[in-house]
């Protein structure tokens, strides 16, 4: 009994106005599990203003948006909707048809069989038809406008009914939070908060109404094209300056990548094909077992028989170089991120940037720095492909149990021992998943790399895209897919099963 | 053998400030709270003789696991002295400290802390690998120890294929691999069910008697402590409440807390083994 009265007292303090109503409503809500029907008329009538006044701001915004959307719909429809534009077009066409008609009549009066008279008559008929179509479209749109008004009205009704039906539940939840927080200051119906909510409505609704009365002011944001071009010009200069400054380094890097790629390509394409195929099959069997051997055999047959062998070897060389560089940089970087939380935070945002930025965008500076050709393709591929191996290596290192590492320390292990004999082996499954992901990401870049002059299967897909050769494109795409699957499975080896 | 002298380990936003405040006669609770201070071990002094088996006993959070980690500097003491055979541990350079840990101190953990990617044998041989022993030598030694703990023939198994009790025996074998003279055991049997725990206690006591290692054994179980220990150290809130034999704790408890703690403990009927000192000399 005592407890109940304490609760009632709290409700009184919380509700401020009409506390008797809320005492009853909260008791009903608390008495049963699940949704208890409870309708708050004041909330339904006032809508967002009530929600604001009760400080239910997280509910205020969706209901405000519902109200504004309804207002937009109604105002749009009342301003004639799409019908007004279509109606104007019909008027124009009718006037044109009428003049053409009178011209035709005049021509017919002079000589009904002349070519001019016939063509004028035809033209007048066509215009009349067009005018009729436009009129019908305008009328349809006008009928549609009525539907839009109904929709807008319905939206308001649903929003208000929803507010009313949910109001007491939201208030009750807020009441419980308020009681837990023990904050008696933020109770009652706040007039300033309600006024704030009303102010937002009072600003937005006239703006919407005004917009549909006079389209001139709010149709487009007053953008400043000069700022855009100034910023672009500044970036142009910056890139030019940078490419000048790092040109020697870029050249050296390009040369290094070219050497590496040349070596790979020479091995894969200059060796007679029976040798390369046999070696690939042997590696597949050795590393990944019989099933992957069969898969590899099938893939190689497809590539060879359909004439993709040379190109697929070029692709594998390109991709292999990119993946190798990604992994060589990525694993140590991932380990560093696993050990140093601050480095990890910086690197993580950088990786997010690299993965989110569309590939076509970072092609621009890459081309500016490294020119068109294979090295640029490889660098773009690395940018896109390196994040997974870094992330998953870091994840693997951070998820090594602290107790295991502590045990190694207790037995006198040095840091180097812990890294190579404890952390890396324990993180190995995660790192392998990262390597596999990186290879697949690299492969998905071959088409884009082909765009800037990297040869191989991507080139075929690109050609197919340019000349709408669906069949060719699909075959080349399938060839890329097969390369990806075989590479992934072979690298994963036996442990993945 | 092992000597701790007024050793402190405090945690907090500012270790030095926490230590200063905690060492006052009357620490200010508000200051400690502001520093988010936790006193892991507060002014513990303890010496463990050669061949002695000392149990650190207390509730969770009483600082016993922290204290045992100060002996091999898995945790760096905030203040105080830690000596092994008279040599100051805290002044050791990293390389010398690793050497000491590897050759002289074996440790067993509650969570086993075995390496999942290695076989049972390679796990046992880990300390020898750290010491740079040759492969055949490590494997022979590991197999010998697996026999000692009753796991002969399981060297090639994966560790996660073993039961909890067996994994803990692997942990014990690993701790013994480098033939250290000190054993630190952090609640080794706590996670096991009672029957297996009792069984492992019996085995461990036999092994301990045979090998005569100086042992610090952490447990929250009074019965376990009384059963295996030469001397029991009861800890409370980071401080040593009382140190003595099981009989002393029961018959002459230092305060009410000790009395309540040991109230329902079973005293071992009669210890048939000779006292630790005699054992060590023999």
Task: Outline the secondary-structure elements.
The complex is a heterodimer of chains A (497) and B (282).
Chain A: H1 2-15, H2 19-31, H3 41-46, H4 48-53, H5 57-78, H6 81-110, H7 115-181, H8 191-213, H9 225-245, H10 247-270, H11 273-288, H12 290-305, H13 309-339, H14 341-356, H15 359-370, H16 374-398, H17 402-410, H18 415-443, H19 446-451, H20 457-466, H21 470-492
Chain B: E1 2-11, H1 15-22, H2 29-34, E2 38-48, E3 53-57, H3 64-71, E4 79-84, E5 87-88, H4 94-104, E6 105-108, H5 120-124, H6 126-130, H7 135-148, H8 164-176, E7 182-186, H9 194-211, E8 214-219, H10 222-228, E9 231-236, E10 239-244, H11 246-251, H12 256-262, H13 276-281
Parallel strand pairs in B: 3-8, 3-9, 6-7, 7-8
Antiparallel strand pairs in B: 1-2, 1-4, 4-5, 9-10
Helix pairs in contact in B: 7-8
Q: Please mark out the parts of chain B with pLDDT under 50 across 5 or more consecutive residues, or reply none.
A: 274-282
Helix content of chain A: over 70%
Rounded to an integer in angstroms, the radius of gyration calculated over CA atoms of chain B is 19 Å
Specify the structural class of chain B: alpha/beta
């Amino acid at each position: 009994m005592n407890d109940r009265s304490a609760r009632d007292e709290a409700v009184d303090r919380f509700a401020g106005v009409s506390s008797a109503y809320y005492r009853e409503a909260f008791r009903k809500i608390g008495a049963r599990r699940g949704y208890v029907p409870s309708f708050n008329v004041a909330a339904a009538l006032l809508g967002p203003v009530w929600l604001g006044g009760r400080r239910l701001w997280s509910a205020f915004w969706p209901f405000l948006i519902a109200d504004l959307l309804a207002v937009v719909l109604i105002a749009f429809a009342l301003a004639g909707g799409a019908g007004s534009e279509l109606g104007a077009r019909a008027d124009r066409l009718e006037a044109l048809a009428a003049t053409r008609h009178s011209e035709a009549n005049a021509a017919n009066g002079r000589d009904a069989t002349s070519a001019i008279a016939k063509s004028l008559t035809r033209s007048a008929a066509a215009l009349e038809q067009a005018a009729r179509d436009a009129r019908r479209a305008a009328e349809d749109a006008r009928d549609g406008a009525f539907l839009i008004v109904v929709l807008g009205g319905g939206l308001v009704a649903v929003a208000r009914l929803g507010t009313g039906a949910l109001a007491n539940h939201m208030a009750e939840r807020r009441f419980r939070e308020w009681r837990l927080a023990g904050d008696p200051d933020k109770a009652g119906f706040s007039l300033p908060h309600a006024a704030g909510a009303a102010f937002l409505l009072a600003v937005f609704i006239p703006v919407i109404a005004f917009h549909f009365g006079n389209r001139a002011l709010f149709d487009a944001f007053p953008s400043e094209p000069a700022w855009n071009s100034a910023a672009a010009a500044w970036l142009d200069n910056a890139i030019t300056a940078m490419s000048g400054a790092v040109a020697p380094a870029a050249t050296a890097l390009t040369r290094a990548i070219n050497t590496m790629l040349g070596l790979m390509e020479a091995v894969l394409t200059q060796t007679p094909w029976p040798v390369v195929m046999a070696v690939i099959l042997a590696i597949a069997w050795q590393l990944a077992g019989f099933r992957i051997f069969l898969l590899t055999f099938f893939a190689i047959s497809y590539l060879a028989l359909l004439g993709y062998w040379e190109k697929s070897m070029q692709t594998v060389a390109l991709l292999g170089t990119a993946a190798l560089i990604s992994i060589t940089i990525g694993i140590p970087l991932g380990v560093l991120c696993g050990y140093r939380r601050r480095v990890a935070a910086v690197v993580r945002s950088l990786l997010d940037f690299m993965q989110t930025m569309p590939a076509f965008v970072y092609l621009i500076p890459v081309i500016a720095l490294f020119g068109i050709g294979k090295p640029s393709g490889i660098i773009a591929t690395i940018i896109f492909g390196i994040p997974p191996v870094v992330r998953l290596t870091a994840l693997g290192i951070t998820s090594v149990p602290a107790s295991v590492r502590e045990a190694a320390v207790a037995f006198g292990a040095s840091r180097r021992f812990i890294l190579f004999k404890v952390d890396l082996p324990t993180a190995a499954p995660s790192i392998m998943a990262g390597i596999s992901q990186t290879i697949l990401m690299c492969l998905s870049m071959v088409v884009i790399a082909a765009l800037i002059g990297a040869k191989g299967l991507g080139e075929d897909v690109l050609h197919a895209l340019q000349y709408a050769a669906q069949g060719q494109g699909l075959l080349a795409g399938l060839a890329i897919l097969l390369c990806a699957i075989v590479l992934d499975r072979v690298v994963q080896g036996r442990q993945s099963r | 053998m092992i000597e701790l002298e007024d050793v402190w380990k405090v945690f907090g936003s500012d270790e030095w400030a926490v230590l200063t405040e905690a060492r006052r006669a009357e620490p200010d609770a508000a200051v400690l709270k502001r520093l988010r201070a936790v006193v892991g071990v507060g002014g513990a002094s303890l010496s463990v003789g050669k061949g002695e088996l000392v149990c650190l006993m207390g509730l969770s959070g009483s600082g016993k696991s922290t204290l045992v980690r100060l002996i091999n500097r898995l945790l760096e003491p905030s203040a105080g002295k830690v000596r092994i055979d008279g040599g100051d541990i805290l002044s050791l350079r990293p390389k010398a400290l690793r050497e000491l840990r590897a050759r002289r101190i074996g440790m067993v953990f509650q969570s086993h802390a075995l390496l999942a990617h290695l076989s049972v044998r390679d796990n046992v041989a880990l300390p020898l690998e750290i010491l740079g022993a040759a492969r055949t030598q490590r494997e022979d030694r590991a197999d010998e120890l697996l026999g000692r703990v009753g796991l002969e023939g399981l060297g090639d198994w994966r560790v996660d294929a073993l039961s909890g009790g067996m994994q803990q025996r692997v942990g014990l074998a690993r701790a013994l691999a480098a033939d250290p003279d000190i054993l630190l055991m952090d609640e080794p049997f706590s996670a096991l069910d009672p029957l297996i725990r009792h069984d492992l206690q019996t085995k461990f006591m036999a092994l301990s008697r045979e090998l005569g290692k100086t042992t610090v054994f952490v447990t929250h179980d009074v019965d376990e402590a009384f059963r295996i220990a030469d001397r029991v150290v009861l800890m409370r809130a980071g401080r040593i409440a009382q140190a003595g034999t099981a009989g002393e704790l029961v018959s002459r408890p230092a305060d009410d807390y000790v009395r309540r703690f040991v109230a329902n403990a079973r005293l071992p009927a009669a210890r048939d083994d000779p006292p630790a000192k005699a054992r060590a000399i023999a």
